[in-house]
TrEMBL record:
Protein name: PPM-type phosphatase domain-containing protein
Region (Disordered), start-end ranges: 1-21
UniProt keyword Nucleus present: no
PPM-type phosphatase domain ranges (all copies): 159-381
Length: 396
């Protein structure tokens, strides 16, 4: 199953995924390069401004301006380039002083040069501090993302004429373990799926993620209908909240449970306060809003025991796209939220990986960085002529 990766894949990666993955990685590198170019141009720009001011208005003392060059370079450059920036500022000050008076040794100049040297030394120490902080943050983020991916199960690529793809991306501004989850299980009642988002981050949310994944796998195999699966998850969340002394009462999990019928003609869906999934087919996108809203998991005691379930047709070639709120809550520079519908409103192949990559490419164009973890799961009903293989059930 070709699945070009807008987000890193959690399961085994097919060799056909690499071209798409490389294109996405290259695109993200170009975005990061554009974001860091202008700050790195700041120290040489300060030097240039100091030279221009000295040429236009010679009485102006440019030493205070040049003194900021090394300090500005400290959080941006390496140690060698930070020291080099200070040396360039010192040389520029010497040349400007010599051009004006023909002499360098004077009390004001000595004070200015001493200031430049002192601030360059200070900038070198600051550079080392910034480098250690960046390395610690990078390590923490990598560990958190690795733990998050390890918790998520492997999703089969094809099951009963259905193709699947997943994507996961950790937030770029957080180093904590997120609460996004998804799982798929092939059962005698049909293909059952869940995607959810636990409120909060850290070890408490990780515990709830593992608990929900465990109860979903057990209930998906043993219960006869989708409402029973949802009820089992609700009971488990309520029990975990009751046993956790420090768990706030308002802790909850938004989730969407889906059951695709064995003949693939339709699917049932129970939405517990989660962003509405999308059905992509023939260049059109349908937002699958629940007919009757339901409270998230963990708050079911505030409502009745009935689990509202909606039924939708799944025509051949259609793709069901489920995602967490990290995608639709991504903002651009003006504060506008990302809308996944427009980029998917175009002819797309019956390939869940291609659909997710189209959405995520538009997402990365929309926002500079994600403020929350983002997970996506897509399943496509293959055209009848492409049905082959069954795939293995998800391993816990």
């Amino acid at each position: 199953m070709a699945a070009r990766e807008g987000m890193p894949k959690t399961g085994a990666q097919d060799a056909t995924d690499r071209p798409g993955a490389l294109r996405m990685e290259r695109y993200q590198r170009e975005r990061r390069f554009r974001r860091i170019v202008w700050p790195h141009a700041l120290p040489p720009a300060v030097v240039a401004v100091a030279v221009v001011i000295d040429l236009v208005w010679p009485p102006f003392n440019t030493f205070p301006l040049l003194a900021t060059v090394s300090v500005t370079a400290a959080p941006l450059y390496s140690l060698a380039w930070t020291v080099t920036s200070g040396a360039v500022a010192l040389l520029t000050g010497w040349l400007l002083s010599f051009r004006e008076s023909g002499e360098v040794i004077s009390r004001p100049n000595v004070i200015g040069f001493t200031t430049l040297v002192t601030l360059t030394v200070v900038a070198a120490f600051l550079n080392r501090m910034f480098a250690r902080e960046r390395e610690q943050l990078r390590t923490s983020r990598q560990v958190a993302e690795a733990v998050q991916r390890a918790m998520l199960p492997t999703v089969p690529e094809r099951v009963r004429g259905l193709a699947m793809a997943t994507r996961y991306q950790a937030a770029q501004v957080e180093a904590l373990i997120g609460g996004d989850l998804y799982a798929v299980h092939d059962t005698s009642h049909g293909l059952r799926m869940v995607i959810g988002d636990v409120r909060g981050k850290g070890t408490q949310s990780a515990t709830l993620v593992n608990t929900l994944l465990g109860v979903f796998h057990a209930a998906a195999l043993q219960t006869p209908d989708l409402p029973s699966v949802v009820q089992a998850a609700e009971i488990q969340v309520q029990d975990l909240k009751a046993r956790e002394a420090d768990a706030p009462y308002e802790d909850f999990v938004t989730a969407v449970f889906v059951e695709i019928l064995p003949d693939r003609s339709a699917f049932h869906m129970a939405n517990r306060g989660h962003p509405a999934p999308l059905l992509v087919h023939g260049g059109r996108v349908t937002t699958l809003e629940p007919k009757e809203p339901s409270l998230p998991l963990g708050l079911g005691d505030l409502a009745g025991p009935v689990v509202p379930v909606d039924r939708y047709d799944l025509p051949p070639g259609a793709t069901l796209v489920l995602f967490t709120d990290g995608i639709i809550e991504a903002r651009d520079r003006t504060g506008a939220f990302f809308d996944p519908v427009p980029p998917l409103t175009c002819p797309l192949p019956p390939d869940p990986g291609a659909v997710l990559d189209t959405m995520l490419t538009a997402l990365f164009r929309h926002t500079d960085e994600l403020d929350d973890d983002a997970a996506a799961l897509a399943v496509t009903r293959l055209p009848d002529g492409q049905v082959e293989g069954t795939g293995a059930a998800v391993r816990p």
